[in-house]
Amino acid sequence: MNVIVEIDGKKNGLILGVGSNHDFAGCLVKNGRIVQAIEAERINHLKHSLSAYNPFHSILRYLFPSGRAKLQSLATCDTVNPRYFQDLSQWGEIKRYNHHLCHAATVAYTSTFKASAIFVADGLGSVWRMKDGSYKYETYTYYKQDQNKITEIQKQFGIVDHTLDETHIHQ
Fold first, then answer.
1. For the whole prediction, is pTM greater than 0.85?
2. What DSSP assignment string belongs to the chain?
3. What percentage of the chain reaches a pLDDT higher than 90?
């Protein structure tokens, strides 16, 4: 069963957040509250199921068993492979957010603290293309949270040596 998704931008309060690099998941939020969340491998029983097929379809079928979804917006982090959303591009804009900011938001918006310091340590965050054509990746980012505002303080980048497995050379 395919799920028909319409992203109309109207303020119905229904937002779908999806993403990951290796463990695909979806979270349905209505009016600022989590309604339902699921990780793809819980549905298809395939660990790190990204390589098996498009896990986005299993997420949609699970969250929208009626086969139809009318969303205010669809959001993901900027490290998710865009090919997973090819068949949705006709339905509306897909909002893409910085990978480390997504990690920070997960902490900030589920915390009971009104203010906090947030440290994200990640092997491969968002990719930044350099003027010389090479790439660097976020590895560490410091944020501060005050109420519902998250502010970046500092970011550390690493360069991946692709001859080794995710080995970072920090500059």
1. no
2. -PPEEEE---S--EEEEEE-SSS-EEEEEETTEEEEEEEHHHHH--TTGGGTS-HHHHHHHHH-TTSEEEESEEEEETTS-GGGGGGGGGG--EEEE-HHHHHHHHHHHH-S-SEEEEEEE-SS--EEE-TTS-EEEEEEEEEEEETTEEEEEEEEEEEEETTSSSEEEE-
3. 13
